[in-house]
Amino acid sequence: MHLPALIIDKIVAKIPIIQGGMATRVSTSRLAAAVANEGGIGIIAATAMSPDELIQEIRTARKLSSGIIGVNVLFAVRDFALLVKTALNEGIDLVISGAGVARDMYKWGRETDTPIVPIVSTAKLASMVEKMGASAVVVEGKEAGGHLGTDRRVRDIVPEVRKAVDIPVIAAGGIINGADIREAFTWGANGVQMGTRFAASEESNVTDEFKQMYLKAKKEDVILIKSPVGLPGRGLKSTLTEKLLRGEDLSPAKCNACLKKCSKNFCIMDALNSAQQGSIEDGLVFCGEQVERIKEILPVKKIFENLKAELAALPDLPEQKEAT
């Protein structure tokens, strides 16, 4: 199968793959630059970063790559506006955001001529954000890792969104290999977002303990927890998640007020940071539903080589044959 370019306004990605923006500090400059160097869109996860840290990450990514670099900022964080504006002022190529609707960010995007790409899980929301000024939408199904906005499969949502909007549609959730990418295009997607596969890369900014947890994961290890953000979150079993599922009170002694609204059943930033730094049992390891299919930790270059080889062995879609 021949992969078409992904065009989002003025941005043209030779390979229609967006690397998921995984917080906290899983997706940093090294990973984003490596993906951008392969022709995809590399994403820095800005959530929980300070403005100064984000500036440094963007500038480092620029030194490492001349490709497309974007940021992902969770709408639920209190510093959302500050982080988005910081990235825009640094000349970031695009902004991705989920876990809520931020009407103002489309205005900010127009002011800097920067594409804004929200994460949606329904055709209704996709249509609404297109009218607000979205340049594309990431359509996330229940198979995705991290915070989820639906219990429906991505394969069922993408065709509905495709009919509802004229902007590019990027499928996200459970996409691991070339066959998954081809299938997403049969649903009407213009590209895919891959998080879990790139979290299990050499350039991913997590410890070996975190990555080994992915390799050892079995289907029954993947669970849902109630996040303080107000959405379910998909991750791997740990001592922390077992306590949460038992209903234990893990309210933090001190709240840093990092979220706009927080149920305070536990501190998600502390949990994500602990996992990223290697304290697996005390942390929260987000992952996609299909994590068990990942068998190797590979450099980003090799991941792209494998994807291209897998796709080359598959037939083109009928409409692609006509286009060529």
Automatic annotation (TrEMBL):
Keywords, ordered alphabetically: Flavoprotein, FMN, Monooxygenase, Oxidoreductase
Entry's Gene Ontology molecular function annotations: monooxygenase activity
Database matches in InterPro entries: Aldolase_TIM, NMO
SUPFAM superfamilies linked to this entry: Inosine monophosphate dehydrogenase (IMPDH)
Domain of life, per lineage: Bacteria
Role summary: Nitronate monooxygenase that uses molecular oxygen to catalyze the oxidative denitrification of alkyl nitronates. Acts on propionate 3-nitronate (P3N), the presumed physiological substrate. Probably functions in the detoxification of P3N, a metabolic poison produced by plants and fungi as a defense mechanism.
PANTHER family listed in its UniProt record: 2-NITROPROPANE DIOXYGENASE
Annotated protein name in UniProt: Probable nitronate monooxygenase
